[in-house]
Every structure is written in C-alpha cells, then in structure tokens.
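Two proteins follow. First one:
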Amino acid sequence: MVILSIIFLFLLVIIRMSYLQIIKGPMISELAIDLWERSIPIDGQRGNIYDRNGELIVGNKLSPSVAAINRQVSNKEETALFLAGVLNTSYEKIYDHLNKNVSIELIKPEGRKISSEQAREIVRANYPGIYVVGDTERFYPYDSYLAQVLGFTGIDNQGIAGIEYYYENFLIGKDGGLKIVTDAKGNYMHDIVGNYEYPNKGLDVYLTIDIGVQMVMERVIENAVARYSPEQMLGLAMNPKTGEIYAMASYPTFEPGNYQSYPQEIYNRNLPIWMSYEPGSTFKIITYAAGLEEGVFTLDETFNDPGFYMVDGARLKDWKKGGHGTQTFLEVIQNSCNPGFVEIGLRIGEEAFFKYVNDFGFGSRTGVDLLGESTGIVFNPEVIGPVELATSAFGQGNSVTPIQLVTAASAAVNGGILMQPYILDSVGYGDMEEIVFRNEPTVKRQVISSQTSDIIRYALENVVAKGTGRNAFIDGYRVGGKTGTAQKVGPNGTYMDGNYILSFLGIAPMNDPELVVYLAIDNPKNTIQYGGVVAAPLVKEVLQEALPLLGIEKQDNQIDREVRFWIDTPFYDVKNYIGMSKKDVSRSPFYNVEIKGDGEEIVAQIPIQGERILEGGTIVLYTN
C-alpha cells in the first residue's frame, strides 16, 4: 500500500511537471522574461514639416542618448569618472545616476542628444551596464527663418510651441525600446536574446508656407533692421482668395534648436497674430469699402480739405499741413486724406460703421490655426460719440492685429468674402505619396458686394500708381496698396512724440488678386516717419521676388505711374542692344550699362527690349 501511494504521488508530480512545462510553459517563460527584461526606451521620430511645395523645413537628425542598467555597472566610480569626461559634466551628477535603485536609468539631461563622436567614444570604451541607443533631435535647414511659427520641441521630443505644439497629435511618433534580458541580480544573460521594438515615425505635416517667399521676406526684414534699427518688425503674406498663409515673420527672432538661449519674450511672441496696435491709414481700406457699400459717396464726388476737420469741438488734423484742397474721393484715398475719411465715417454713422468693423473681423480672433492669437480692442459703439467715430474712420482709437488687417483687406479686394486664414495644408506619409488629411479654404461670410470690391481694387491701384503708395509701384505688375503711419500709445495712454509704427499693405495683381503682403516696422531710426517712405519700398522688394516665385506673370494693362514729386524716380524704355558691337554701346546719363563677356558682339541683354527701367538702374549686356 505504501509502495502504491509513492507511485501515485510520483505520477502526480510527473503529470504536474508535464502540465507546467508543456501546457503552461510558454506562458510561464513569457512571465519570467517580463520579469528579467530591461527595456531601454527609444523615442519615436517626429514627423517632418514641409512647405507647400514639399521642401523640408523641419526634419530629424541622429542624436544618440545614454542609458545605464545600474546593477550591471561593475565599477561605478571609474564608470562615472569616464562618462563625466565624455559628457562634459560633473562626476557627482553621473555617480548619482549610477546609484539610483531603478532597473533602467536614463542619463538625462547630461546624456541625452549627444554627438556622434561622444557616442562612438562611449561604445568603444564598452563599460559594463552602459548602453548607447538611437535617438533623434529636430533639424532646421533654414535656421531662424519661420521660428515663431514652427515653435520647438523639448528634450523628450514633445512639442512645446508653435506648429510643433499645435499639431502634436499628428507629428508625435510612437516610442520603441531595446529589450535586454538579465537575471534577478541584473546581470546580462548572454544566452537569451532580447527584442528590439522599432519606434514609429509620426505623420508629416505640409504647411501653406512657401519657403521661397518666406526667405525673401526674412531677408528684406534683416536688411531693414540693419538699416533702421527698429524696436521690432513683422511681415505677413497671404493668398487673399483662400486665406493660405505664404509667409509669416517676426523680429527679433531666434534659433528653434537653441531656444533656451533667448528670452521668453522673443520665442513666445508670434507678432503677426499676437501684436495689437492702432493700424493707422491701412485701416482706411475698411472705411472706404464700408462707405462705398453704403453708397455715401462716389469716386468722382469732390471734397474740400483745409487741413483739418472740426468734430464736436475737436480739431482733427490732416497729415499734410494746409490740407489737400478740393479733391475727388478717389484722390482722398490716393492722398490718404484724414479729413476725407472723417467725412466718410460721419456719413456712414456709428451703428453702420461698427457693424462693418465687426463684419470685417475686427475685435475677434480670425481662427488661424496657431496659438497666441489676440482679439484686438474695438470701441463699443454703444458708448462712443462723433469724435471716436471720426478717429476710427482714419485708423486711430481701435487696436488690431496684423492678421486681422490682412484678412480684412483680402475680403475688400477678393470679391467681398471674408476667409479664415490657415497654415496647415495637409498631413500625410512619405513625401506626399499618401495624404491622410487635406485642409480646405473656409468662407466666413460675405462682407461687401463684388461690385464694391471691384471699385476698391481700382482705387487701391491708383494709390500705388498716383498716390502715397508710389514707392511700391512695380513696372509690369498691377500693384495696389495702402500706407500706414500710426503714432504709438505710451504707458500713460497718450500718444508718444516721434514714435510710430510704419506699415504698408501691398496687393497684386489688382485685376485678380493672388498675393497680399504686409510689413510693419516699429519705431525705425534715422528716417522720415512715413509708411510710404519706409515700408512701401520694403513691400515692393518682397512683391518683386515673390510674384515670379508664385508663377504670377507681368501684365501690360496697369495704371501708369504718375511722377508727381521730385523724389519720384522716372522710368525709361529699354532699347535693343543685341547685334551691336561692344565698342558701339553708348553710355546713358539715366541708367547704367554693364557688359559681361570677352566677345565683341552683344548677343543677349537683361532687361529685354521694350521693358522699362528705373532711373539709376542697370542694363546687363552679354557678349559672344
């Protein structure tokens, strides 16, 4: 009986062992490996950021990181001394990392995002328990360009500001890990191979930005900053038909990969959507549109400007001493005549005027897909009087953001439709091969009629051809626009002497607007404080290069430029030099002629015959 009991117990043991090894074995092995495995995290790569044409503007580059399995580190003092030397940090910090009672210790921040040279040195040293894993950091091929828009990421590749933060859910990658099998004491088990869990890359984001236009704008701003030493400066370019943002720039700027070296006031302020100020005469576009829509004046109706306008006992001055005299209302906008716009505003009336102000989007956010947008500040029409209405009509009293102003001006010229500005074009995989989401233009409302918009385009083209915006005239392109000279309000609520924000809003081509460019320069030094003198030529520079980049061709039916003052530079027709001998090329007193090449015969020229050149410009001739 005893023997049978022993045999029975023996069989039970065999059955139990067989069950554990054959039936439960795989599960038990997995549980054991889970206990033994140490996973060294590897961040997933963020998606790239491209411009509208697929040009890379934010990518990733290899930047390894260091991790330690502390139980495997045999000589912590020696290891800490070595790592401190390679990572350029203190021995005490590394020694503290290696003495933590954790399964895996990431050496951060000291060992995160190290260079390839540092990584190779650590791998070659082969200290037990020290591992180098693949990691990435953001790469910015255009340095500080578009910085406030793009934003930046933290040490763990999370989006902190700008596009990086706003579209984090698209861009973020899925983390992976290097799994190492150890025994209970943390010793590496060489006979069991761990797993490598591949990190996944995030989705790629394509912006409406055209990096070519952005580079032009940034360069113009850089040159203006060097010349005028302003307190700050901003630029914005947009498609008036769709609301797509082509360029957006702020100065001072910063390097996103090194944002910690800059004050928060620089990297946290995207001026075109954040900055709020009195717009000055650029706002007259809105007053003019409202007046035309309400039918309170016509272009050929005359108005007399003595240099001021008395409203409720207040004397509101024109910018031109003595005024402009008798002029048509077309000349009122050409000359940016303040009393003329006071007259338009008073004819419209408070209720109707501020209805248009609100309908054009002032006093509320545009809805652009960027963080930090301001609402601006608009008078409450219920508590204002005739003086506030009058000053509002020519751009004083209300504060607006640049993006509000550009969006409203776009509505004035695009057929009267207020669009929602946006900067995300699409989201996808692998060089636009698979698009998973595409943004579309959003119509907010019809603000004025298309007929009124037609008249606005004609009037603004006259401003550039014959009025205060003449410095933005481009031969061959139908450019319209409006100057702005806004006196700044000081901390005590009064206007500051000699301290202005100068601006210009340029649009082209005026028969079918496809590009709006706005530049504002805050308190430029050593110059005449007029938007038409300082800002208009800067916008002209941007338009001259941006229009061809966008495939917009010249036209020959523009309103011709009127030379009215001695400061206006005249044009001259370019004659044909092709076929002439080099020795027969005569010099001109009006423009420069430059010959390139060692041949005797002229075979090509820029500009070509029939185009026009500004006085002082250069014609380049090429020989055979």
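Second one, unrelated to the first:
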Amino acid sequence: MTKADALRPEDRANDRASLEVLLKAERDGVETCFHRFQNLGAQCRFGTSGVCCRICHMGPCRITPKNPRGICGATADTIVARNFLREVVGGTAAHSDHARHLVLRLKAVAEGHGGDYRIADAPALKRYAARYGIPTDNRPEQDTARDLAAVFLAEFTAQEENLRTLTLAPLRQQQRWARHGVVPQGIDRMCVESMHRTHMGVDHDYRNLLGQAFRTAIADGWGGSRIASMCSDILFGTPRPVRSQANLGVLSGTKVNIIVHGHEPELSEMLAVAAHAPDITAYARDVGAEGVNLAGLCCTANEILMRRGVPIAGNFHQQELAIITGAVEMMVVDVQCVMPSLPEVAAAYHTEVVSTADIARTIGATHVSFQADNALESAKTILRRAIDNFRRRDPAKVAIPDDRNPLVAGFSVEAIRTMLGGRFRASFRPLNDAIIQGRIRGIAGVVGCNNPKTRADAYIGTLTRELVRRNVLVLQTGCAAQASAKTGWMRPETALEHAGDSLREVCEAIGIPPILHMGSCVDNARILEAAAEIVREGGLGDDIGGLPAVGVAPEWMSEKAVAIGTYFVASGVDVILGLPFHISGSDKVTAYLQQEAREMFGGAFHDEPDPLAAVDTILALIEEAREKLGINRKTERKLFDMKDRRALNV
C-alpha cells in the first residue's frame, strides 16, 4: 500500500459521514489523527512489545536478545509487567477520579449546598443505600445521601479495609480474589502502591506485578467505575430506554451547534437543561439562529443520551471531523479522550474550543472554569458565548453530511430488569431461561474506543452484526455503542431483521432489542452488574466466570481500556482484543495474561485482529461454558401420564 493509498478515506473510516468529512479535510488542507498516524510511519517495536524502560534516568533501556537486561539488571519480564501495571493504574485513576467528583457532588447535595443539583432519583438512592446496609425507612433523603456519600468516599481512602463495593460481586468471585491475594483496599491506596511498586528498584517479580495489576483493576471495575454509575443515577436519574439519533448529520444548518465532549456528566447535564431555557432560545434568535442544537461526542455524549436523549454527533475518531464540517460554534470539553489537536483544527474554521476542567487544559483552547456551585448560570454563560460565535460562521465552509440514524439507548440494569419481568415482577428470570433453553446462546459485551490503526468502526460493525445473527445478545458501551448507532444497528427494527431466529423471538416477546446500549465507558461496570444479576437469579452457576458470556474490545486504544479488560478477566470473563497489549516482549507475561489468568479467575485475554475469527472464538467460548453448565443437553419430549405427574411432587 502506498502512502497515497493509505490516506484514502475509505481505508480509514467505515461510515459515510466520516468519509465525506475526511474528503473535506483534504480539500481544506486540515490534518487529522488519520494523517498524523500515517505520517509517523513505522511504530517503535520496543514500545509495541513493551520492552522499553524509561522509569529511571540511567536509561532509557531497550531489551534485545543481545542485551537481555537493563542497566539495573531488570529483565524483559520485569519491564513488560511493570509497564502493563502502570497502564492499569492510569486507567483506574481516570475512571475513579471521575467517580470521586460525583461522590463529592452527592455529598454537597446531601449537606444542602449542592447549588442547582439535587437528588433526581430517590428510588435509586434507596436501592443503593440498602446494598450497603444504610437505613432508608422514615429518614430524610438528605440523611441517607450523606451516609451513602461517606461510604463511597471511604472506598477511596481506606488503608486496611477491603472495598465494601466488592460485596456486590457473587460470593464465589470474591472467594477467588481472596484466594489469589488480589482483594483491593482503598482505590487511592491501590494507585499509589502500584506506582511505588513500579518505581526503580522495588518490585521485580513479574507475577507479583501482574497480581497487583489485577488488584488495582478490580478497584476500578468493582470500585470507582461502579460508584460513578451509582452516583450518576442518583444525581441525574437512572437511564431508561430513550430514542435519539446519531452521526454528524445531527448538526444543524440553522441552529447554534454546541458539542460536548469528554466524560464527566456534571456540566453536560446542566448544558442540556440550559439549552432549552427560554432566555437562551431568545438569545439565539437575536443572532439569527433558530435555536440551540446540543450534541455529544464520546462518553459525555453517552451520559446525556442515556438520560435526556441528546443526539450523538460521533465517537472518538470523529471529534476533529465534527469541527471540519464548519458548522460547530463551540466544542466544550472536560476530561479524557480529548485530542490536543482540536484548537489547531478549529483555527481553520470559526469554532471555539472551550476547556472547562481545571485539571485538563489544552493549549489554544479558551479555558472557562465550570462553577459547579452555580452550575446553571455557568452553563448559560458558556451557551451565550457559543451563540455569539454563530455570527462568525462562514456558509462557504459549512458542509454537514446528511447521515444520521435513529437509535434506542438507556438500558441500565434496572431498566432491563423491568423490561424482562414487568413493573411489579422485575426479574432477570426470562433472560436466564432463554439462555438455559438455548434460544439465546450467550452474551457478548462489545466495548471500547476507536484506533487509527484500524478502519474506524469496521471491526465493531462486522463483529456485532455476526454475533446477533448467531443468536448472541450484545451489550455495548462507549464508542463501540456509538459505532452501532451511527450505522442504524441500534434501531431495534433493523437489528431484529438480521438477528438469528431464536434471538429475535425472545427479543420480540420481551420487548428488547438484540443490541443494548448500556452507557459510557465507565458504565462497563453496569455489564458486570448485569452478569452478577444473572448469577443471582440462578440456574447458570454461582460465579460470573461460569456464564456463557464474553467481553470484546475491538478497536481499543486507551489506558482505561487496559484497566477495563483486566477487571473483566479478574471477574471471570474472557476478553477478546482486536489489538494486542504491548506485552509481546515477554513470553511469561503473555502466558500469564492469556493462560494462567483463566485458571485463577475464570477468564483470560485473547488477541484476534480478524472480526470473523473473533466471532468463532467467542462462540467457542460460549459453547464451552454451556457444556460445563450442562445446559446443552437435549431432553426427549414426553407426554406425561398421571403416574409421571405424581412423581413430580409439585
């Protein structure tokens, strides 16, 4: 493939909107992540194999067969394991700091100084408080919220106590963690201890380092991420099924377009409220616009989609492309997955990039600190600034793709339970029965990011369509969910048309689509919550590791994805990676993560760059689990006589 061929839009993206805007980028002379990836050329083999160590300043050291040790004597096994653990720490810190902000907001609300925030979902508050033994009957909501916030904060600061949130996992899973010494204490302690262990001259045993990686990741999946989802439900409402639209075509040619991008929902929730305020609408009309059009990117998009139906402009790889349409007045960013290139791209158009988190500033962006204590007015200030920018829009530079598709999202565990059993009989029983009967062969959680190393969204789309065709129920989060939404596969009618016969029958009877959008990347904890509910319902074993369920990260790219994959494996779920970890420089580390982990926890990592081969692997793992559970046995149909009926003893 020549350099010119490699830059063809059709080699970089899968959806028509992205292809159209990539061509516009070429015409406008604007560089995107796809161009930069190509311009970098061959990537460093020491980095991709994980054998480059720059932890101390005797190095950097690069391990080769001729030089098998670093200056300090560290082997490839030590270096690869150490680098892997640091990636897990980065991902855990990102998710858990997100959670901390929400816990502090809940605490402020409980103490009566939450500003414009309030407890939006009192049943969720009671439901989660009960899980920690906090009394709720005949108590003011504020008191319950205060007690729950205190429990959540202690999950960060605990020094000797195990995380209480771990008790939400099946008992068998908890016993596995205890047996292998990976039960975490406080989330902050896990991150600090991991960084200490990876400092020069501390922990050199690759097995010990990898054990700590699992311990830290568990603190994320069953700690920080789970807490983040619970707090979001209490403060902003538990997601319920909601209709919306997805792809760059949701941008408006006649309204002020504001895109929210990042991961934390505090500001985006207030922007969604403020965008419909009469004074903001009137302000927009004064500058010649028909109103304000709010849309989202990445996981901030998923947060406000799940609760308010705000449309999705795109996923990770489309953040630059949204600006290149020439129709965006402002992109409001907070934390995580925000490209530092955005102000440079915006310089070619009228778009203003506004950063709002004090821990996440970008050179070239306008920084407007979000004042959570005066949230609604702070949101309106940002909206007015965007509206003022509408006058600077150049019609000659505007080209909005006419590509958007309807979707249904908002499938929290509580919503799924209600859809399965009804309002008064909410239960996972119908799902368990369908799996036991073989009408649903198993479940696949398809999650993760986009990566310019692959054709964006292509792996996700091929994998999802084939799994549904083979009667596998698909749960999606993050950018993977958005990939399906953009192509119309989160329109229940479309997915049902292509689903396998038995999966379609079950979904039609229950009233759920075969692909369920469960939220943002932090909401991967909801997938584990659903798995725990299946175990609790009975009939499919006593731990998550025995379920016919598999996780897939087709196009992942971030440290958060490393942490997510690791806590899924620790929870007993096999995880298929479309792109491998940077661990190939150590056969021992590779064997630990891909083989030994399965003996310890019930799940392991698998690399599979081909989506159809990945489907075969997933189905093989699902069928293996079904065989072990004994639910693949066929029984002969028999007409019962009275003697048979008496023998049933019912």
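SUMMARY FIELD: Residues 3-62 form one domain. Confidence is low (pLDDT under 50) at residues 1-5.
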